[in-house]
Amino acid sequence: MHWDILATILLTATIQSLFGVGVLLFGTPILLVLGYDFITTLTTLLPISLAINLLQVSKDYRQIHLPFYRQILTLSIPCVILWLLLVTTRKLNIGGIVGVFLIVAALKSVYPPFQRVIESLVRYERTYFVVMGMVHGLTNLGGSLLTAIIHSKPYDKDQTRATTAVSYGTFALFQLLTLGLSLGPSTIATPTTVLYLAAGISMFLGTDLLLYSKMSTDRYRTTFAVFLFLSGTALIFKSLFLR
């Protein structure tokens, strides 16, 4: 067990326990900066992300917005699979663009022109879902676009987290299946992976009990907006300084 990976998992699992995303969105750049290759990063983080999402969905599955999820399945997932298969041959640095988009999404409630920008982009939902799948397959940053479009919907906190979790979990599931078929199951199922998985699940249970259950919908949406802003800032920083 690597202690730097464990610390990353505990931090990002806390974030994902609240918002439905985080382990991949933040864990991927952290582990890459620490010197781990992209495939190792994926095979370490994907099972944890999927497990947390499954626990979230099992509690709030009635809150899932099914029309939104159908678009994930039909438009995003095929792109995730296709672009993940190409990930070792081409790498695109689009973190800065995604980061700016997240900051605009976070500030839309306090600056009306940003609200109009988000509405104009989200209006083309089919294209948005396709691009989101491409981005996730290539970079593991599709969770950032997912949280942005979810934040534009009038969901309460349970529907927000449940819809995010089932969508993000589906991303992780198909990524794992793709990697398992292309690299072999032994690449993913290792004793160390089980230990990391146990740590991530434990952090979810604690966060869900101590933090999430005590948040009102208004406070959750405000915290979610702060999360989007910090995500965007982190992605811009990574794009500019951590190439």
From TrEMBL:
Which keywords does UniProt give here? Answer: Membrane, Transmembrane, Transmembrane helix
Q: Which residues cross the membrane?
A: 6-26, 33-56, 68-87, 94-114, 126-150, 162-181, 193-212, 224-242
Q: Which domain of life is it from?
A: Bacteria
Asked if Transmembrane is a keyword of the record, the answer is yes
Keyword match Electron transport:
no
Name listed for the protein in its UniProt record: Membrane transporter protein
